[in-house]
Amino acid sequence: MGEAARIGVGDDIRNDDEGTARQRPADRAAGQCTQQLAAFQKAMDALGVPDKVTTFTLSDFGRTFRINANAGTDHAWGSHHLVMGGGVRGRAFYGRFPNLAMGGADDAGDDGQWIPTTSIEQYGATLAKWFGVKSTALAHVFPNLPAFAVTDLGFLA
Question: Strand, helix or coil at 6?
C-alpha cells in the first residue's frame, strides 16, 4: 500500500479584486506550484524513484467565468487536475473538455459555471487503485462511483 503526503499552495484566494490592482492569486499560486512540482520531480529522478511516486492535484473547487459585482468570481464546480510520475500514462488528456460557452450545454447557469465531465470519484478511484485499494472496495470509499460507467480513467499504468 502506498503512502501519501499533502502540501498546500497559498491561501490567498478571494472573491474580489481579481486581476485589477494585483496579480490574480490563482495565477500566482499556479506559478509557485509549477516551480515546486518541477523541483520535486527532479528530486525523485535524482533518487531513482520516479516510477514509485505519483504526484497529483486534488480539488473539487472551481470559479465561475463571469466576473461578479466585486470584480471577482464566485464558487463553481470542479477544476482541471495534473498527475505526474513514472506510472502515469502521460502526454494525454483524460475526460472530455466541457463546452465553454456561457449559457451553453455544459454551463449550470449563464455565468460560466461549467459542469465537470469527469467526476472527482472517477479521478479518486483511479488514484486509490494505485495506492492499493482493491477494486471491490472502491464503491465503499467512493459511494457515488457506481453512478459512472467508467470507474478507472486509465491514466495510471
Answer: coil
Question: Using one digit for the tens of pLDDT, what is the confidence trace for 104-138?
Answer: 999 988 888 888 889 889 999 999 999 899 999 99
Give tens-digit pLDDT for 56-113. 988 777 778 888 888 777 878 777 888 998 889 988 888 888 888 989 999 988 888 8
Q: Among all chains, which residue has been given the C-alpha cell 485589477?
A: 20
| Measured distance CA(139)–CA(132) in Å, rounded | 14
Please indicate, yes or no, whether residues 154 and 92 belong to a single structural domain of this protein: no
Question: Are 109 and 155 in the same domain?
Answer: no
CA distances from 131 to 54, 63, 88, 154 (A): 9, 30, 13, 14
Q: Which domain holds residue 131?
A: 119-157
Residue 121, judged by CB atoms within 10 A of its CB (0-12, 13-18, 19+), counts as buried
Contact 41/55 with Cβ under 8 angstroms? yes
Q: Same domain, yes or no, for 53 and 38?
A: yes
